């Protein structure tokens, strides 16, 4: 048992959430649930990034104040977390007064360390990134990430001496090759550090919508500095005992590659400057793409996950996210591939397996899971394979390979389906081979019970429904990782017949 603190980025409220936000939140939820299964003390944080140019602009366009805009938008982001069935322990808003006060104290600490100085800045600014670019970093004069033209900005700002942390950061990376995962993202961040770090502007003179610089209220703190600090500020005021001591440093910050530099370079430097421990790992997943491009609100090519969740519930969406796109890599998503996967893997592979098994136990054994009379429950042709799957799933999940773990789980689903065909219980029943029939039906029930434990992080509702159909309880203890062993299915459990778990989607 250990502690586990996982975060998602806090999302900009300039526009409505899309599938990309739901994706990171779901990924963090899968690992949070898995660590709770292991018995770890878990804290899972998500929230919204509400200050800055981009949010101010969005409000301006709507003719309302940034605060009104943020207050209206935050509900949609909270709803994402609810709709994907995320178990976040807290939802932070950067407009929370406690966060604002903490950010001011934090930058004061950096100033006391001698890392803040006044200077002038001029450069090209992409308001979608909330970051400056140099000419050579642009693609055809446009922001490489958002495809929009940056604007020229010139200001007197406060600067953070990022350059002073170059050596420390490089040493930190070399000593901790798992600081950023996967490895190619680590290499990217390290090579960026090795190219040399410039000092960064950490305040804005022209912007009003932000947290005032404590020693100069004519300026506001740069939105990225304000935002990064959320991971630490939340622990100071979220409900719960002693959260800072229990959960800092964070175990994993999860995000896509768009914001790796902020988290891999600026964030650790700020923490070093203010005298805090550094997070243990960043996990960088890929982009979900639609029509070959990264989805983004700025580009206007976004997929809305809500209709799919509305229609099929959160679990098929959660499953699809990690099954369709190899977690850690970019991948295409869309309604058609969602429906294809739903039908072939959820309706056919898993749903049918449960329906068939429960219905055969109903038909041949009056609905009671039999005791295999001729052998101990753990002596099953499936046992060794299942135990190997459990071990692999655990290793993959510990290493954030959410797709690898799901692949292994699906091996077990397919093994159980093959077992039904190999054993052909209907033939055993006809031939009066009671011992073999009992053993087969027990194995199917046990395989499904084990799957309910393994699937819990991915499809919590489905996993509870599977257990109900097997006549088992679905309280938290039922999903403990210690339940992921072969042979724990109680004989005599009374199965429940019912509708298919995943009714097929008929094509229009
Ligand atoms: N507000 C900043 C983050 C501050 S964290 C201290 C921000 N917000 S954002 O709304 O733009 O969210 C970016 C994050 O949303 C990505 O890093 C990723 O987690 C998620 N995604 C947004 N679009 C995505 C895809 N198309 N695909 C995968 N993840 C996506 O940046």
Per-chain topology:
Elements: E1 3-12, H1 19-37, E2 41-49, H2 53-62, H3 66-83, E3 90-93, H4 97-112, E4 116-126, E5 131-133, E6 151-160, H5 166-175, E7 180-181, H6 183-194, E8 200-201, E9 203-204, E10 212-213, E11 216-221, H7 223-228, H8 230-237, H9 243-247, E12 252-256, H10 260-274, E13 281-285, E14 288-290, E15 293-294, H11 306-312, H12 314-324, E16 331-332, H13 335-365, H14 383-398, H15 402-423, H16 425-430, H17 434-455, H18 460-469
Parallel strand pairs: 1-2, 1-12, 2-3, 7-13, 12-13, 14-16
Antiparallel strand pairs: 4-5, 4-6, 6-8, 9-11, 10-11, 14-15
Helix pairs in contact: 2-3, 4-8, 5-6, 6-10, 11-12, 12-13, 12-15, 13-15, 13-17, 14-15, 15-17, 17-18
This protein binds 5'-O-[(L-methionyl)-sulphamoyl]adenosine.
What does this 3D model show about the protein?
By secondary structure, the chain is α/β, with parallel strands linked by helices. The chain folds into two domains: 3-312, HUPs (Rossmann fold, 3-Layer(aba) Sandwich); 334-483, Orthogonal Bundle (Isoleucyl-tRNA Synthetase, Domain 1), CATH 1.10.730. 48% of the residues lie in helices and 15% in strands. It contains 18 helices and 16 strands. It has helices at 19-37, 53-62, 66-83, 97-112, 166-175, 183-194, 223-228, 230-237, 243-247, 260-274, 306-312, 314-324, 335-365, 383-398, 402-423, 425-430, 434-455, 460-469, and strands at residues 3-12, 41-49, 90-93, 116-126, 131-133, 151-160, 180-181, 200-201, 203-204, 212-213, 216-221, 252-256, 281-285, 288-290, 293-294, 331-332. The strands form four sheets. It has a six-stranded parallel sheet with strand order 3-2-1-12-13-7, sandwiched between helices. It has a four-stranded antiparallel sheet with strand order 5-4-6-8. The chain has a three-stranded antiparallel sheet with strand order 9-11-10. The longest helix has 31 residues, at 335-365. It starts with a strand and ends in a 39-residue tail after the last helix. The relative contact order is 0.11. The structure holds 5'-O-[(L-methionyl)-sulphamoyl]adenosine.
